């Protein structure tokens, strides 16, 4: 008998940084990013099928990962506890060309990764460039909360494979986290 393993990855960050385009790319709902900005209202949930890297007892070969594309508008802050509950991974996204964003990213980290008790292994950061980028001699640095979390510079114009690869790596860590969470809940019964 196969057990239902729910895997939940949040996509978080400030407004208008590209979270929805990245989420759509990962979920395979678009081939090319939208140029027009349409803010996410609350959140959107997309489904991504993935294959676990290792066999998980009583779980099938394909797993459904829920990708929660969360609005960057802080007016939805009162809903955040319901969103981070049972999260297995977080993909943080910020505008790598906006020097004001590291301070705001600290708020996202404290509001989601800390209460969800997710370690660096279960998080990724996309320092996203809306235009193709060249390496900067003075890249934006995130605060100490992000120490140990893999930070990857992304652009939808030329790093699609990198984005998908980093997501797959995060998904494997999230699957492991969800599996442990499921085993703990079974042992409490």
UniProtKB/TrEMBL annotation:
Domain of life: Eukaryota
Keywords: GTP-binding, Nucleotide-binding
Stored Gene3D superfamilies: P-loop containing nucleotide triphosphate hydrolases
Alphabetical list of Pfam families matching this protein: Roc
Keyword field contains Nucleotide-binding: yes
InterPro entries listed in its UniProt record: P-loop_NTPase
Name of this chain's protein: Intraflagellar transport protein 22
Native species: Blattamonas nauphoetae
């Amino acid at each position: 008998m196969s057990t239902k393993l729910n895997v939940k990855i949040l996509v978080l960050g400030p407004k208008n940084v590209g979270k929805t385009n990245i989420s759509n790319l990962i979920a395979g709902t678009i081939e090319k990013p939208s140029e027009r900005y349409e803010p996410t209202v609350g959140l959107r949930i997309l489904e991504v099928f993935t294959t676990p890297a290792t066999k998980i007892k009583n779980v099938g070969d394909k797993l459904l990962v829920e990708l929660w594309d969360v609005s960057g508008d802080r007016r939805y802050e009162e809903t955040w506890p319901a969103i981070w509950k049972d999260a297995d991974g977080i993909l943080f996204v910020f505008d790598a060309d906006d020097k004001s964003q590291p301070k705001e990213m600290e708020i996202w980290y404290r509001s989601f990764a800390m209460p969800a008790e997710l370690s660096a292994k279960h998080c990724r950061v996309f320092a996203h460039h809306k235009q193709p980028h060249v390496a900067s001699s003075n890249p934006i640095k995130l605060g100490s909360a992000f120490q140990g979390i893999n930070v990857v510079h992304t652009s939808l114009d030329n790093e699609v494979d990198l984005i998908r690869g980093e997501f797959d790596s995060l998904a494997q860590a999230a699957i492991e986290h969800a599996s442990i969470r499921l085993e703990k809940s079974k042992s409490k019964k």
